[in-house]
Amino acid sequence: MEPKPFLRLDEIHCFLAVSEHESFRRAAETLGTRQSSVSRAVLRLEDRLGVSLLERRSTGTKLTNAGRQFLSEVRPALAQLGQAQRAAMGAGRGDTGTVRVGLHSPPISKFVQTTVSMFLERHPEVRIDICDGSREEHIAAVRSHRLDIAFIPGTGLVQGCESAELWQERVYVALPGKHDLARRRRLDWPDIITEHFIVSRFSTGPEVRDCILRRTATYAIHPNIELKEACGETLMALVCLGQGITVVQASWAAVRFPGLVLRPLKAPQDILPYMAVWSAKNDNPALRRLVSLARALAR
């Protein structure tokens, strides 16, 4: 099998100019070069293809059957090539592409919502894919590049990743509206330590359980914690039904849930830092732009 001819764009552009103007002279004037250069370029293209593309006449040029077929195929091919070039350049600048974002748990915090909304306004061709998960799941996904970035609770170094503390949120107690403590504006752990806590068995549930155990460790009473096969709004519905109370991040305060009351825990230890985590080896330029914006908004 003979090797396929290697086509050059400069020769193709010369052919397109000649086919449009039906003249080597006018094509050369349009391209800003010599007529002889255009003629030689078209001849080289014909040699590569092994066919004649033009009929040379004293009055000008005319496409051959092969020339017409080549022209009909090469124009959309060049348009597609131009689109590919623009797409690659846009992706290299971070103007296009996808950023895969991991969130600790719904609802989305105000800081993340503001950051993502502003980023999409500035880069409308970039797609943001968001998924929920636990801190450990997200860190593992960032390390393996299944996620570009994760917004998770905590601070400090994360092995194999870059990180930046960005915002803080107070811990709230989720109560049914008919609960006696719902009349209080703020609460502390001694107020709730004898309550029946319910937490999710999935996603961030184990972290919530660890938080309750850590904050009640100094008291003589061991908290009563029940794991539920539910998370998010379903868990809040169970709270409303009186099956127990739980603790949530401040973002839940922006969610209107019938029968649910949220009260902040007043101790300074109940303000949690949140950070972004990403891989230093991730070369996604759109990710870098998102990180820069998040850092700027956190100042």
From TrEMBL:
It holds the Pfam family LysR_substrate. InterPro entries: LysR_HTH_N, LysR_subst-bd, WH-like_DNA-bd_sf, WH_DNA-bd_sf. Residues 7-64 form the HTH lysR-type domain. One of its GO terms (molecular function) is DNA-binding transcription factor activity. Gene3D superfamilies: Periplasmic binding protein-like II (3.40.190.10), Winged helix-like DNA-binding domain superfamily/Winged helix DNA-binding domain (1.10.10.10). Keywords: DNA-binding, Transcription, Transcription regulation. CDD domains: PBP2_LTTR_aromatics_like. The keyword Phosphoprotein does not apply. One of its GO terms (cellular component) is protein-DNA complex. The keyword Transcription regulation applies. Belongs to the LysR transcriptional regulatory family. This is LysR family transcriptional regulator. It comes from Jiella pacifica.
